[in-house]
Write a structure and sequence with these properties.
single chain, 10 strands, 37% helix, elongated, 4Fe4S_Fe_S_CS, metal ion binding, cobalamin binding, tRNA processing, QueG_DUF1730
Length: 359
């Protein structure tokens, strides 16, 4: 048992216990990094921002290199505990959905409950358990919820390595997991980083439908389907719309092509189970949702945050790329006078793709 009072803490033993408690809390792994990154990370981020690769994600530029400095978020931060939770759901085969032009492809991570809520609750419980053992200490929990370079810290801690698609890769789970962190002022012993295991493989780069992975370890968000369907507030650039195919929320192609994901296992987390049949829904079916339907069926889901108009915008593009079946054309025609100018513009484009008059 670790004695109360930080001056009496056996930090190596505490680190071992934290990793064990993390598994008990439902995480699949935990590793520890120092709360600082090398100068190369700062230079790479500054260059990425200078090149405008963040698109309209203005908060990225506002926060700048703060995401590399946990002490700016937690005064006196010394350690970052990085944790992963597997999410791959038992759902209709992803490749089959992508091959079905009338189906709507939703990124597999978004088929269930919003991961922010799930992980934050578990992270807080773990942080509180640490406090119950050692007494009051400084900490803050994160899960993609603040400017923190979570992949960089997780890689530095040896939780995996950064793949050429910029996601973290793990020998046992590929990249199909969420990350969460506890940034703390506890001087925990750091774990060793793991060397990368991508070698000469470029499958993720070759698989990207829009060429968003512009170089190994560098993604231009302005080309990324996840950015276009989730973060971009306005019209999707016309030149890119045909490349979206039927992807209406996010994109998994770089992960689906990655050999390491053959080791990923289905998540046993009930909160990540498919909701409302979103793994097998048709584009036309989802396009017919009213705003009330959207709010009800995406409540508690990450999809909810993009709002109804962006949801319809994305679906209109998917319908424009779908086979010109009666159901597809009828769905588009039903919204040619939609109240949203954003939706109408994408419907007009989609109808024109099918040789139909939008007016």
């Amino acid at each position: 048992m670790i004695e109360c009072g930080l001056q009496n803490v056996d930090y190596p033993e505490l680190a071992r216990q934290i990793k064990a408690w993390a598994l008990e809390a439902g995480f699949a792994g935990a590793r520890i990094s120092r709360a600082s990154l090398p100068d190369e990370a700062r230079a790479a981020l500054e260059a990425w921002l200078a090149d405008g690769c963040h698109g309209q994600m203005d908060y990225m530029a506002r926060h700048g290199t703060l995401r590399l400095d946990p002490a700016g978020l937690v005064p006196g931060a010394l350690s970052v505990v990085s944790l992963r939770m597997d999410y791959w759901p038992d759902a209709r085969d992803a490749h089959a959905v992508l091959a079905d032009g009338e189906a709507a492809y939703v990124s597999r991570y978004a088929l269930g409950r919003d991961y922010h809520k799930v992980l934050r609750k578990r992270l807080q419980a773990l942080a509180s358990r640490i406090e119950g053992e050692v007494g009051a200490y400084g900490y803050r929990v994160f899960t993609d919820s603040a400017p923190l370079a979570e992949v960089s810290f997780a890689a530095q801690a040896g939780l995996g390595w950064r793949g050429k698609h910029t996601l973290l890769l793990n020998r046992d789970a590929g990249s199909l997991f969420f990350l969460g962190e506890i940034v703390t002022d506890l001087p925990l012993p750091e774990d060793a980083a793991e060397e990368g295991h991508c070698g000469r493989c470029t499958r993720c780069i070759d698989a990207c439908p829009t060429g968003a992975i512009v170089a190994p370890y560098r993604v231009d968000a302005r080309l990324c389907i996840s950015y276009l369907t989730i973060e971009l507030p306005g019209a999707i650039p016309e030149a890119l719309r045909p490349r979206l195919g039927n992807r209406v929320y996010g994109c998994d192609d770089c992960q689906l092509s990655c050999p390491w994901n053959r080791f990923a296992r289905l998540s046993g987390e009930g909160d990540f189970a498919v909701r409302h049949g979103l793994d097998a829904a048709s584009l036309a079916e989802l396009f017919a949702w009213s705003e009330a339907d959207f709010r009800e069926r995406t409540a508690g889901s990450p999809i909810w945050r993009i709002g109804y108009q962006r949801w319809l915008r994305n679906l209109a593009v998917g319908l424009g790329n779908a086979p010109a079946t009666p159901a597809v054309l009828a769905a588009l025609a039903a919204r040619r006078n939609d109240a949203s100018a954003l939706v109408r513009e994408h419907v007009e484009w989609a109808l024109a793709r099918h040789g139909a008059d939008a007016r």
